[in-house]
Design brief:
It contains 4 helices and 10 strands. It has helices spanning 23-31, 33-39, 132-141, 143-161, and strands at residues 12-19, 46-53, 60-67, 72-73, 76-83, 87-91, 94-95, 99-100, 109-117, 120-128. The longest helix is centred in the C-terminal third of the chain and has 19 residues, at 143-161.
Length: 162
C-alpha cells in the first residue's frame, strides 16, 4: 500500500491530532498491548479484556473488548504493514496469516500514520470502508463516536507517558 493515500470522504473516516509527545511514545502507546488496554475502549463503555499484536505483515491484531455488562466481543484482524514510528496498517477483512475473515460486523481497513512535528507528533487515523452504506452504518452504530473518544483517550495516555 502506498504511503501516499488520499482519503475519500464518502468512504473513509479520518481523525487527525498533533500530540505533544515524541513519535517513539506515540508508537509505543499504539503498539504495546499494555498501553492499548488503557485507551482503546471508551472507559464509560467498557474495557479491553485481552489484546495481542504481532507487528508484521500477516501478524495477528486481536482485541477483545468487554462491555459494561461484562459480555466480551472479539475483534480479530491482520496487520498489512508495520513501519516503526511511521505507519501501521491492519484490516478486519483478513485473519492472521492473510486468511479470509468470516464475521458479521462491518469490515474496515485502518491506516495510522505519524510524523514528527517539532517536538510533537502528527497522528492520523483513517478507517477505510467498502462503501458509503458501511460508513453510514458505522457512524449510526456509535463506532465513529467511540473511535473519537478512544483517540482522545490515546492522546491523554501518550502525554501521561512523558
Amino acid at each position: 500500500m502506498s504511503k501516499r493515500f488520499t482519503p475519500n470522504p464518502k468512504l473513509d473516516f479520518v481523525i487527525e491530532r498533533v500530540i505533544d509527545a515524541p513519535t517513539r511514545l506515540v508508537w509505543e502507546a499504539l503498539t504495546k498491548p499494555e498501553h492499548l488496554k488503557e485507551w482503546y475502549m471508551p472507559k464509560a463503555w467498557g474495557r479491553v479484556a485481552r489484546a495481542e499484536m504481532d507487528l508484521r505483515p500477516g501478524g495477528i491484531f486481536s482485541i477483545d473488548i468487554a462491555g459494561a455488562d461484562g459480555q466480551e466481543f472479539p475483534n480479530l484482524g491482520c496487520f498489512l504493514e508495520a513501519v516503526p514510528m511511521e505507519r501501521l496498517v491492519w484490516t478486519s477483512m483478513l485473519f492472521p496469516g492473510y486468511r479470509p475473515a468470516v464475521f458479521d460486523d462491518i469490515p474496515i481497513t485502518a491506516i495510522v500514520t505519524m510524523e514528527a512535528v517539532g517536538t510533537g507528533t502528527r497522528y492520523v487515523f483513517t478507517a477505510l470502508h467498502r462503501d458509503e452504506a458501511d460508513l453510514e452504518k458505522n457512524k449510526a452504530s456509535g463506532w465513529q463516536q467511540g473511535t473519537e473518544i478512544a483517540v482522545d483517550q490515546f492522546v491523554e495516555h501518550v502525554i501521561a507517558m512523558k
